[in-house]
Design goal:
Shape: globular
Helix content: 25-40%
Number of strands: 4
Distance between the termini: 21 Å
């Protein structure tokens, strides 16, 4: 599942960077309140009203440097992992947390 352009526009336009992770969109999210984080991350997910967000971490290995991972929980009980690229657009990919089960990766856990 891919996130919508609206999510990217909101993340790019909002907030100022609080840290320098190498991922400007992640830094802007970190500067937001928890409610704002959940709302911003859920904007591109159809039918999701974000109620909780969790910064899982930013990758530091050379090949995937500065990819940021977040989890977001929706009001309807669904949860998603959001991968945010360190590009100027904050390109995001979204995966249902249920799809990660059994893969060794989990939502709402630090990397």
């Amino acid at each position: 599942m891919r996130s919508g352009v609206l999510l990217l526009a909101i993340l790019i336009a909002s907030g100022t960077a609080a840290a320098d992770s190498g991922n400007p969109t992640h830094d802007r999210l970190m500067a937001m309140s928890p409610d704002q984080q959940a709302k911003s991350l859920s904007k591109g997910i159809k039918g999701c009203v974000g109620t909780a967000a969790f910064p899982m971490g930013v990758v530091s290995t050379a090949k995937w440097k500065s990819l940021a991972y977040w989890s977001v929980r929706c009001k309807d009980g669904r949860s998603f992992a959001v991968q945010i690229a360190p590009d100027a657009k904050g390109t995001a990919q979204v995966a249902d947390c249920r799809a990660l089960e059994g893969s060794g990766k989990e939502c709402f856990k630090k990397l």
